Amino acid sequence: MLQSRSGLPSKSSSFYPWFIVAQLCIVGLLNYLDRMMITTMRSSIIEEIPMTDAQFGLLTSVFLWVYGFLSPVAGFLADKFNKSRIIIISLLVWSLVTYLTAYATSFEYLLVTRALMGISEAFYIPAALALIMDYHRGSTRSFANSVHMMGIMVGQSLGFIGGWLAEDHSWNFAFNILGGIGIAYAVVLIFGLKDNKAPGEVSVVNTQVDKADFVSVLKYLLRNKNYLKTLVLWSLIGIVGWVIGGWLPTFYKENFNLSQTSAGIYATGYFHTAAIVGVLVGGFLADRWSRKNRNARILLPMIGLCIAAPAIFIAGSTSVLAIAVVGFMLYAFTRIFSDGNMMPILCMIVDSKYRATAYGVLNLFATVIGGIGLYAGGYLRDMNINLELLFKVAAFLLAIGALTLYLLNRSVKKQVKMEGHLSGD
After folding, report:
1. Under DSSP, is residue 3 helix (H, G, I), strand (E, B) or coil?
2. What is the DSSP letter of 139?
3. What is the distance between the alpha carbons of residues 344 and 50, in angstroms, rounded to a whole number?
4. Gap between the Cα atoms of 316 and 310, Å rounded
């Protein structure tokens, strides 16, 4: 690949950074499809492997626990070693686990495979996003990240494929097919996915890490006040995301007397379509705006949350189905601006050598706290708390998230001004 004097890809090789994104889109799709499809083939599995609802729920819980707690370590290793190799090995291992899941004959076997899935998949996201940032260092950063996020979201929405294959063939067949596809694609990536060998990006943040060991990097991150703001933001978004995703079908069904099928269509079909369009629009607008305002990648998500919060509040309070659908679609469209711009925001406030670790820690908090939020929502439901109140709380949390981004924007502007003053600019 030809390089310019600055070390960035030259015009004659500018297709390769986007080729990287395209390859990772498929990996991201497989990542979420493989983890989500087990929930859509529940009936087929428990017919052959009897288990209680609690045991079936534990299969997903174990995955999330392992995935969340390993994410910081996975990110640290991605910062330290070859990102593309970590991605390929991660895909190969979780695809092999998916394939072997087809031969499960007991609950314990399934539980082990879900734990192994959590271990292997934890290594993908931090490495993939950091690799995209290595190739997209200018005005394409947010859109490149958003395109990859689109691949992940498509994978989420295709989770029904597992149930379809299980009904038409068997649940074993579904795991065999999708696991085999992942293994084959991992082999293909050996020839197409490479790390960026250009000189490293000059960090915008001064590092004070004496030793580049895991504990020292964690201390560095947790002493970074701007990073702590993103940690608060990502945790709030995680809570709201789990609550909305987990209870929206129930809200539609109960509040508007819809069938389970109709409620599912409103809660997933319209919702995910709006989110997919939103993540692309948010990335595109942030990149365009960043040419004139260096903090655009902070400001656009802030504006998005300012729209998303009242949209949820109104949608959760109305008795008119059309208003509820539009409100939740507007929430899905604007809240997702934060997802497309989170890694680019980290590039502004965290040393370039520790981006993957930083995202891994965010993943841990979002997974753990989001899961707590989902459980808390169920607990409140058991106490006969109306979903309308739950959505109002979610709107309030998004408003706090917008305030957090406002404070982050002020802090980054102040830091840039101070650095400019010290340099004599």
Report:
1. strand
2. T
3. 46
4. 10
Count of beta carbons in the 10 Å neighbourhood of residue 211: 8
Instruction: Name residue 297's amino acid.
Output: R
Going from the first residue of the chain to its last (425 residues), give the mean pLDDT of each consecutive group of 10, the final group possibly shorter.
43 76 93 80 81 75 85 92 94 94 89 90 93 89 93 82 78 88 94 82 61 84 92 89 80 82 77 91 94 93 96 93 94 94 92 91 83 65 74 93 95 74 46
- What residues form DSSP beta bridges with 3? 9
pLDDT computed for residue 42 by the predictor: 74
Q: Which of 109, 272, 90 is nearest to 185 (CA)?
A: 90
Q: How many CA atoms lie within 13 A of 333 on its CB side?
A: 13
Residue 404: how many CB atoms within 10 A of its CB? 22
Alpha-carbon span 125 to 71, nearest angstrom: 9
pLDDT, residue 425, reads: 46
Record the tokens describing residue 274, joined without a space.
């709006």
Q: What is the DSSP letter of 199?
A: P
pLDDT at 419: 58
Name residues whose C-beta falls within 8 Å of residue 209's C-beta, 6 or more positions apart in sequence: 216, 217, 219, 220, 351, 354
Across 37-72, b (16+ Cβ under 10 Å) vs e yields bbebbbebbbeebebeeeebebbbebbbbbbbbbbb
Question: What backbone torsions phi and psi does residue 99 show, to the nearest 5 degrees?
Answer: -60, -45
**Is 250 exposed, middle or buried (CB count within 10 Å of its CB: 0-12, 13-18, 19+)?**
middle
7 conformational bin, left if phi > 0, alpha if psi -120 to 50, beta if neither: left
pLDDT (0 to 100) of residue 343: 92
CA distances (Å), origin 399, targets 51, 266, 301, 317: 41, 25, 12, 17
Q: C-alpha distances in angstroms, 184 versus 66, 181, 271?
A: 26, 5, 32
